[in-house]
Amino acid sequence: MSMPRPVRTFFRVVIAGVALLVLAACASQPTVATRNAVDLPRFMGTWHVIAHIPYFAERGHVASREEYTLRDSDKIAVRYVYQEGFNEPVQELESRGSVKAGTGNREWTLRFYAVIPAKLRILEVAPDYSWALIDYPGRDMGWIFGREPVMDDALYAELVKKMRDHGVNARQLVRVPQVPEQVGKEGFAPPKVP
To answer: Which of 174, 165, 171 is nearest to 144 (CA)?
Structure first.
C-alpha cells in the first residue's frame, strides 16, 4: 500500500530538515583536526595539573605535573611527577607518546610501561600557551593544565566553562593542590597522605 503523494512529500521534507539540523550541529562545533594546529615544540615543557576528573591512577596526588620533551617530529617523552602528600617523596612515571597524523598535533597515544595505551586529546590551548584543556576521547576524563602551579580563580572558572563547552563533564573536575596552602580549601581534592 503506497502513501498518498502529499504524505510522502511531507516525510521527505521532515527527513531533509532533520538531516540539515544534524549537519548544522556538526558544523557548528569544529572537529579537533580542523581547528588551528598545536605548535608541538611550543607545547613541550612543564604543565602543572591544575584540575582533573579524578581516576585511580591520579587520585590523591599533589604538586602533580606533566613534562613533555619532543624526541622526533611526532614522538614525545612524557614524565608525570607527583607526590601523595606535601611531606611525601616525589615520585614519577615515564611514558612515551606519539602524535596521530592529520589531527593538527591534537591527538596523542601514550604508552605506559611500553604496552598500556592511553589516548589524549588537546581540546584548546591559550594563545600564549599558558594553559591547556585536555580530555581522553570516549572516556569521562579531563584535565586543566597551566604553566604556573597556581591559577587565578577567575581564569579557572572560565576554563571550567570552556571544558563544559567542549562536552567534558566539568562538574566532576576537582582542583589539584599544587602548594600546601591549597590543601583543605573548597574545590581542592584531598591528598592521599594528609
So the answer is: 174
Give the total number of structural domains in the chain.
2
In a domain, 135, yes or no: yes
Q: Tell me the average pLDDT of the chain.
A: 86
- pTM for the predicted model, two decimal places: 0.81
For residue 187, tell me if it sits in a domain: no
Do 100 and 137 sit in the same domain of this protein? yes
Burial 138-168 (b: 16+ CB within 10 A, else e): eeebbbbbbbebebeeeebeebbebbeebeb
Whether residue 151 lies inside any domain: the answer is yes
What CA–CA distance (Å, rounded) separates 113 from 52? Answer: 22
Q: Give 140-187 pLDDT, tens digit per residue.
A: 899 999 999 999 999 999 999 999 999 999 999 999 999 999 999 999
C-alpha cell at 96: 612515551
Residue type, 165: D
Residues 44 and 130 in one domain: yes
The whole domain housing 19 covers 1-30
* Residue 23: strand, helix, or coil: helix
| DSSP class per residue in 120-133 | EEEEEE-TTSSEEE
Among 130, 134, 155, 131, CA closest to 143: 134
